Automatic annotation (TrEMBL):
PANTHER family according to UniProt: RAB GTPASE-ACTIVATING PROTEIN 1-LIKE, TBC1 DOMAIN FAMILY MEMBER 1 ISOFORM X1
InterPro entries: Rab-GAP_TBC_sf, Rab_GAP_TBC_domain
Protein name: Uncharacterized protein
Domain of life according to the entry: Eukaryota
Originating species: Astyanax mexicanus
Length: 176
């Protein structure tokens, strides 16, 4: 009876989590993780290394009781982390823009030297690509007449092949 009740509770909790996922989107995953980590923080901090923490999360957290599951579900419904996530998103974009702008510690002459170096390498790449294009264009001009005569060549070979086969002595005696 206990196993049956335990299975029913697990399935009910899974269904409730699925409903929350459909209702609130992927934010629910973060909410559940934050709720579980927050409610088990003292137990998690007792572990010395990452391996034992991961083992604790894999073995202990899935075996929560009904009361703890309900508590977690209620916390998830009450949590509002959208403002925090938006703040983190803004901070991420600001940091990304700062990285794209480059370090502001470079003075103007260092920045100009860096740009000149980049410009020189881009010019060299352009010259290399132009050379490749010229080689390909030359090959194209050389092969263009051959490609135009290729259908005629195939046609004449098809017609001459049966004549060649019939002229060979002993060809008809071959048994495959």
């Amino acid at each position: 009876m206990h196993v049956l009740l335990h299975t029913f509770i697990r399935k009910t909790c899974t269904i409730e989590m699925s409903y929350m996922l459909f209702l609130q989107g992927s934010e629910v995953i973060f909410k559940v993780a934050l709720s579980l980590l927050g409610s088990h923080k003292p137990l998690i901090l007792q572990h010395d290394n990452l391996e034992s923490i991961v083992d604790f999360i894999k073995t202990t957290l899935p075996n929560l009781g009904l009361v703890q599951m309900e508590k977690t579900i209620n916390q998830v419904f009450e949590m509002d982390i959208s403002k925090q996530l938006q703040a983190y998103e803004v901070e991420y974009h600001v940091l990304q823009d700062e990285l794209l702008d480059g370090p502001s510690t470079l003075n103007q002459s260092q920045r100009a030297a860096q740009l000149e170096k980049t410009n020189g390498s881009l010019r060299q790449q352009n010259l290399d690509l132009l050379e490749e294009v010229q080689v390909l264009y030359t090959h194209h001009r050389e092969w263009k007449p051959v490609l135009h005569t290729f259908p005629e060549l195939v046609s004449t070979r098809r017609h001459s092949f049966p004549a060649y086969v019939t002229r060979r002595p002993g060809f008809n005696e071959l048994q495959i």
